[in-house]
Amino acid sequence: MSQYIPTLDYYTNGLPLVCTMYASSECYFGVNLNPLCKPSEVSYTLIPIMAYFEFLPVQRNNGVNSSISVPKTLNEKEQQELVDLVDVKLGQEYELVVTTYSGLYRYRVGDVLRVAGFKNNAPQFNFICRKNVVLCIDSDKTDEVELQNAVKNAVNHFLPFDATLAEYTSYADTTTIPGHYVLYWELSLKGTTQFLPQFLRTVA
Question: Which residues are in the GH3 middle domain (predicted)?
Answer without folding.
Answer: 44-130
